[in-house]
Amino acid sequence: MKYLMLINAALDADGAPTGCSTPEDWMLFDKSLKEAGVYAGGDSVADFTTAATVRVDERGERLVTDGPFAESREVLGGYFVLDVPDLDVALDWAARCPGSRDGGSIVVRPLAGYGG
Amino acid sequence: MAGRGSRSRLTLEAVFREERGLLLAALVRRFGDLDLAEEVTSEAIEAALVHWPAEGVPPKPGAWLMTTARRKAVDRLRRDQAYAARLAVLQVEAERAAPVPPTDGGLPDERLQLFFTCAHPALPAEDRAALTLRCLAGLTTAEVARAFLVPSATMGKRIVRAKNRIRTLRIPFRVPDADELPGRLPGVLQVVYSIFTEGYAASSGPDLQRLDLAEEAIRLARILRRLLPGEREVAGLLALMLLIHARHNARTGPHGDLVLLDDQDRTRWDHAMISEGAELVVAALTGGPPGWYGVQAAIAALHDEAPDVASTDWPQIVALYDVLRGLAPSPVVELNRAVAVAMRDGPAAGLALLDGLAHEPRLSGYSPFPAARGDLLSRLGRHAEAAVAYREALELAGTEPERVHLRGRLEAVGREER
Fold this sequence. Notes:
Oligomer: heterodimer
Shape of chain B: elongated
Distance between the termini of chain A: 11 Å
Number of helices of chain A: 2
Largest sheet of chain B: none
Shape of chain A: globular
CATH class of chain A: Alpha Beta
């Protein structure tokens, strides 16, 4: 069963992630996911505050806007895809992720697995 | 003849209500699918209702039901190959995680796993109690709907949604490991306690039905107690509910009005239930640091064991509120402690503590706070101030019996003032 872990970081007023997790924390977490054989993908967004949204209306016109979260305090910082037996195992990994600390949170969502 | 027939059917239904949770839990454990388990459980019980009255109850009713249900599950899986393939994977994983314990004709008791699944933190809080009542107490969806005063169709949708969540998220059917148990057990206890308070609050609906709910919660706690005999907070929760429920006959007057603890006819309390609760309090408070439910139960036991208000062991109650304050500090605990101090040291001492809580935002709008002030002020002979406090409490009171009681107090201090 694959689960998507969406890593939401809390940002301070200057748009920098709050908290004290270091690149080493993340590398260590990455390594333990791979060693446990549950890693099925993942990445970090390049810039926490920059995003573009595309909508196509009923006439086929493309509408591109900034956001959606330039103003919000919690932003998507990255994601992991884990392959684990059940929700509790996924939640355990989420709790170990540095992104779940210092005001950040992890949203865990099951994937339907159409991609095989 | 017909009368006897329907009576024996009722007896059988009572048996099934007991067996249903056990059977359902064993089948969920086996097939890893709550829906399938529920369907074949119902079918097996229907089959028993047809066969048992004619052929007699088999020597091992639980095993008979289990065999029948399993056969029906296999039939169903044969009909739906894709479903079967998916289930097979689940089942193999489950078997690998923990092999099915051998049985000697009886059913393995796997209700504990079901408790933890129904109370999983990934489910919305409102669904946890509903699911627990449906799966473990064996209530029908219509009965669960009545319990929460919502239309049956609404409850049906909620239960289906909760079961879908369990399946889609793949919430495991398991008892948390020893190191996680302290984190997860409070969630299960909270569900059972919320079912009880739903029954105790008696805010609306016919009284009898609410009492049923309180009794259902006690029955669930008894099951938990059997399954987790070493968990002191389980003992504490069961004790607390028994000690509160023991007073239910005396809690309402002849017209359904609220009778406060001070004015209750203590001969109408259930003394067998009180002594059972008191014994459990001992189990809850020995062998380690006390827990929230255990301390609350100990306070309830002191009230229940006193012949009247005056001879209640108030110093001990104050000491227990001190412990509770250390475990889970809250303005409501402070309020209750202040009332106990007033009983121990006199109304002036209690009032001083209450006035220290006046700035608490969580007590503004909480009617027991001005009601307690009114009580202490009137005992100090400050009737005009007491009237102001009672009027404030009256405005905040949520239920009619509460308002009736407060109007009575307001009139009484009014008479004193004149």
